[in-house]
Amino acid sequence: MAEPAGTDRDPEAVSRFVEHFAAQLVEAGLPRMPARVFAALLSSDTGVLTSAELGERLRISPAAVSGAVRYLAQVHMVSREREPGSRRERYRVHGDQWYEALANREAVIRRWEEALSEGVASLGPHTPAGRRLAETLAFFEFVQQEVPALMARWRAHREERFGRG
Questions:
Q1: Nearest to residue 73, comparing CAs of 56, 57, 89?
Q2: In degrees, to the nearest 5, what angle opens at C-alpha 72 toward C-alphas 147 and 137?
Q3: What is the pLDDT of residues 74-88, one digit of tens each?
């Protein structure tokens, strides 16, 4: 799926952006290859690329693309879809990928909260370690309470700034 006609870009500048943004994602904890694939998808006008296109743009093997896409799909940062009339898959990054990634962390955070609660009970709430765990638990509970309102404000801001998507 080539970029639309009329896009006048320096491919080297795009490649530098992909590698720079991927490096920032790696610094934040994303594995290197998924970070590169995500940055490549994000920087494509269509937001959709095939495995072959990703491999060509990033100069990586089909196996590397497959592993990266599997990871990104698991964390809800990309989706897989079939090319119409073909057996080939293509991969799509959505405009709301940040919202989806954050929203899908709720189940993980709930599990962390459960584990932290057990830790506080096991260590005792008045011990230094127990207090540290209790504060961590309180932080995650606070975040869980704030995320729905934050996302509602984001949707309103996004619509005001970019229109309906």
A1: 89
A2: 35
A3: 888 899 998 788 888
How far apart CA 60 and CA 123 sit, in angstroms, is 48
The letter for the amino acid at 163 is G
Q: What residue type is assigned to position 156 of the chain?
A: A
Tell me what pLDDT residue 63 has: 95
Q: Please tell me whether residue 30 adopts helix, strand or coil conformation.
A: coil
* One-letter-per-residue 3-state SS of 45-74: CCCEEEHHHHHHHHCCCHHHHHHHHHHHHH
Tokens 């296109």, residue located: 53
Whether 104 and 76 have beta carbons less than 8 Å apart is answered as: yes
Per-residue tokens: 123: 């260590």
- Whole-prediction pTM: 0.74
Residue 117 · residue 111 · CB < 8 Å:
no
